Amino acid sequence: MLCADHNFDIAQVIRFFRSKPGELIIYYELEESEKSSSRGIVEVCPDSHRISRFLEKPHDGLIQSRLASVVFYCIQRDSLSLLSDFIKMQPRAADRSFGRFWEWFINEKQLDVFGMKLPTGFQLIGQVGLSDYTKWLTHYSNKQLDNPTKPITCRSYARVGLIGNPSDGFNGKTIAMTISNFWAEVTLTESQTLVLVPHPLNDPTEFGSLQDLFCISRKEGYLGGLRLLQATCKKFYQFCSKQGIALTKQNFTLKYDTNIPRQVGLAGSSAIVSATLKCLMKFYNITDNDLPKPIRANFILSVETDELFITAGLQDRVVQVYEGLVYMDFSKTLMEDQGYGNYVSMDMNGLPPFWLAYLSDPSDSGRIHSNIRQRWLSGESVVVEAMETFAELTDRARAAIQTGDWSTLAQLMDQNFELRRTIYTDDCLGPGNLKMVQLAKQFGSSVKLPGSGGAVVGLCLDNARLMEMRQAFQEAGCVFCVIGPYNPSISTASGQH
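RE: above sequence
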C-alpha cells in the first residue's frame, strides 16, 4: 500500500479503534480518475461511523458511494477466529481475500465494523512492476512538491444583525449579513513544529511603559486572539478523532490579523475562529461532506462556548460560514430534530445603503446579555413572548427584503430595537448605545443594535440626511461608515476569498 502522505498517524487510528465496539476499516475518497470497480467500496453511516455495506470491486453503477477501503484493518482479538471460519467456507483460493471476507462479515453476518476516513490518497502495490511503483511514487512526490510551503490564507467577515437578534439564542429567527468593511484573516504555513504566532497589537507581551500597558489593557482587555487559534486547533483535532477522520502528522504555523473593532458586537472572535477553521480544513483536505456548513457553525460556537466560555448564539457563526445575507430559523423543533436550524441565503441584489456606527472606546459588549437567558429558561412570559415577536419581525422583514420594500424594513428594524429595549432595559443597554440610537433618530434613520452592544446599524433612505448623520456621529466621537455588503457569489467569481 502506497500512501500519498508519509506522515500517517497510526496512533490516532488506534485510539479510534479502541473507542469502538467492533472492527475498523480505513477508507478514503476516490479521486476522479479512479474507478470503484478497482477497490472495495464502503457505505458509512455519518453519525455512528458504522459501515453498513461493503462491496468488493463492484461493477459501475452498482453503488453510489465513492468511499474506498484500503488494505489497512484493525481486528478485535475475539474476531480472529472468524477469519478461519471464512477461509474454510471458500473452496476456491481466488475467493480467499480480505475484500470477500469483509463482504461476508458485514453484509451477511451483519457484525459491527466501523470506518475511519483518511483525507489523502492511496495506491495498492501488488502484482505490478517496478515502473508502476515508480510512477505512483513520483506522482505523490510531485503533489507534495507543488508549492509545499505555499501559505494558506483565509478570511471571515464581520457581520451585522439586521433583524431578529438577539433571539438566535432563544429559538428565534434572525437575518444577518456579512460586511466587507471589516474582516479577520488567518494564514497557515507548513512548518517543522506547530507554532501559534501572537498578534503584535492584540496579544502584546512587551510594552513601552507601565502606562502603555494600562492604556492597552483598558481598551483591548486581556484576552487576545491567540486563545482563539489554540482553542480552534484543539477542538478541530477532537472533532476529527470523534468523527473518524485520521489526520496526517503535519505541523504548521498559524498567524492572524483583523481589523474588526473589538468589543462592539460585530462578531470579531467568531471571525477569527471561522477563518482558522477554513485554513485547517484546506490544510488537512477536509471536505464539505466531512464537515457540512450547518455542523461547521455548531463547531465554531462550541469552540467559543465550550472551550472559552464566551456567551454567544448561533447567528454569527452561521452567517460567517454561509456568508452574504442569510435568513436563519432556530426554532426548537428544528434544533432538537436535526441539531441545527434552517438557513437560507437571500438575494443581495439591489440592497439599500445600510450604515454602521460604533463607539471608539467601548465597554465589554458581553455584559449586555444580562439575565435574559435565566428569565427565558424559567418561562417568564414577557421574555418568551418577546422572542416570539422577534421571530415574527424577522419573517416580515424577509418578505420586505424580497419585495424591495425598504420603508417597511426600516420600520421593522426600529421595532426590533424598541422590543429589545423593553426586555433588556436602559440600564442594561448602557448610555453609549442609547446615545447612538437617539442621534440616528434625529436624522430620521432607522436604527438597532447589530450585535450584543457597542455599535448600531441603520437604514437611511435620504442620502443627504445620511451624510449629515455621518458628520454628527463623527463629531460625537463615534466611528461611522456606510456598509459594503460582502457577497460571496460575486467574490468567488472575481477570485477573492
